[in-house]
Design brief:
two-stranded antiparallel ribbon; 4-stranded antiparallel sheet; binds (2R)-2-(alpha-D-glucopyranosyloxy)-3-hydroxypropanoic acid; 48% helix; mainly alpha
Length: 456
């Protein structure tokens, strides 16, 4: 498969190619996630995309976040998708009409169409990253980014408060998701058990648009999975997207360990942003509480035997014991506990992940080849996602694991040189899968290539 940007062999060519992908997918103040498969603005994509834009233009980068956050709901929810009104009907499903948020709830913004769910809260991490990169820019850039952060901080506070309250009424420190799409790792085998119990009712007919854009349907979720995804959307609509009602009745309620870990790290970032944005002391104390509660929640879900943290199924009251990259939650959250850190690093290096003898590159498969649900070509069931490699690399680098981080970055760049800016990659053959010219893949390449070769 050849990407529009080509297969970049050298660092310079790769950086030029990555910039070209972002520019081609740029629609003004925001960037579509992929040229054809994902023609709208996605929430966590935008945060990673902003990390890449920061290396080209920090002011454009912060606009990506400002634009996304302007579609925030009155509840504080930052929507998974902000719909592009200019794309042809049938380009992506479920579309704005199917979600029908503006008609069903006053919490949805009046000016734009959005979906009615959220995605992992990477945004504060991205905003702080942009701020750090902007320090190397001119005065106008620094002033512009600072002004934007001033405006973003109250919105980010409302977003994190929403996750810490409406999405954690138990005060467990862990974020509840109500749809696998909210995890960002949609068809991960983590969700299989919870999804199998869902009986699809009277589902209005629909046509999938995603299969038009991949060469092989086995790379995408199955039709059975889609029926369940769409049924969950119907149930959320029947509850008028009311979080309290959803909590009472919804069949899919899961504490997502990855979103929870990202929230811990995002709270650390928000604390720094609160300083820049001059938030008051009460807000700062609240952020510290959320962060510490999050760390305690992650510790509760630690599985010493697997050396991974596990999701928790709220409905069945049990841990979900599947080996996936989400289990590296303590590493992603910079959990200070030494024992867990050592165990996480050992699991990462083991044959269950980076040490697997058949891997094309030592990069983390989304699901361990040892796990029952592993499938090397299917989306989040096995392929390597460069964007996730970046998140893990960034967390390792931040927390002083320089050697592991350096090796991960080198392997990631080797992979990108071979596959271009693919959405995900078959872990054994190295075949690029999903969409070509995926914005967040190009974005993380730009960050990896920026000197010095560490995060700012
Ligand atoms: C549903 C845009 C998004 C990513 C998700 C990824 C995929 C959408 C889909 O694409 O999900 O949100 O249609 O499959 O799983 O992480 O945000 O890139």
């Amino acid at each position: 498969m050849t990407t529009a940007a080509g297969h970049p062999g050298t660092s310079d060519a790769m950086a030029r190619g990555a910039a070209a992908v972002l520019r081609a997918n740029d629609l003004g103040g925001w960037t579509k996630a992929a040229p054809r498969l994902y023609p709208h603005q996605w929430s966590w994509d935008s945060a990673f995309i902003a990390v890449g834009w920061a290396r080209l233009d920090p002011l454009r980068a912060i606009r990506e976040l400002t634009s996304l956050l302007s579609a925030q709901w009155a509840t504080g929810l930052v929507p998974q998708i902000v719909f592009n009104p200019d794309v042809a009907a049938g380009s992506y499903f479920p579309d704005a009409e199917r979600w029908d948020c503006r008609r069903l709830t006053e919490a949805a913004p009046a000016a734009v169409d959005t979906s009615g769910i959220c995605q992992p809260p990477v945004h504060a991490i991205a905003a702080l990253h942009i701020w750090s990169v902007a320090q190397h820019g001119d005065e106008a850039t620094r002033t512009g980014v600072r002004a934007a952060i001033h405006e973003l901080v109250p919105r980010l506070l409302a977003w994190h408060r929403y996750l810490a309250t409406a999405r954690d009424p138990e005060q467990s420190g862990l974020v509840t998701i109500v749809h696998p799409w909210e995890s960002g790792t949609d068809n991960s085998p983590r969700w299989d058990q919870a999804m199998e119990t869902i009986l699809v009712g009277d589902l209005p007919p629909f046509a999938r648009a995603d299969l038009q854009h991949v060469v092989d349907p086995s790379q995408r979720p199955t039709n059975e999975e889609y029926d369940r995804y769409l049924w969950l959307v119907e149930l959320l609509k029947r509850a008028d997207y009311d979080d309290a009602l959803i909590y009472e009745s919804h069949p899919f309620l899961v504490k997502d360990i990855l979103s929870s870990a990202i929230l811990v790290t995002a709270n650390s970032a928000l604390l720094a942003l609160a300083e820049i944005g001059e938030a008051d002391d009460a807000d700062r104390r609240e952020i510290v509480e959320w962060r510490d509660r999050g760390l305690r929640g992650l510790a509760q879900q630690w599985d010493a035997e697997l050396g991974l943290a596990l999701d928790w199924n709220v409905r069945s009251a049990e841990s979900i014991r599947v080996q996936t990259i989400a289990g590296f939650a303590p590493l992603i959250a910079s959990d200070p506990n030494e024992e867990r850190r050592a165990a996480q690093l050992a699991t990462l290096a083991s044959p269950a992940f980076l040490g697997h003898p058949d891997l094309r590159w030592p990069l983390p498969p989304s699901t361990s080849p040892d796990a029952a649900g592993f499938q090397p070509r299917s989306y989040w069931r096995g392929p390597v996602w460069p964007v996730f490699t970046w998140l893990l690399w960034w967390a390792l680098d931040q927390s002083g694991e320089a050697d592991v981080a350096t090796r991960l970055r080198a392997a990631a760049l080797d992979q990108l040189a071979a596959v271009g800016f693919a959405e995900y990659v078959e872990p054994f053959s190295g075949e690029p899968l999903g969409s070509a010219d995926q914005s967040w893949t190009a974005a993380v390449a730009l960050d990896w290539l920026a000197p010095p070769h560490t995060s700012p």
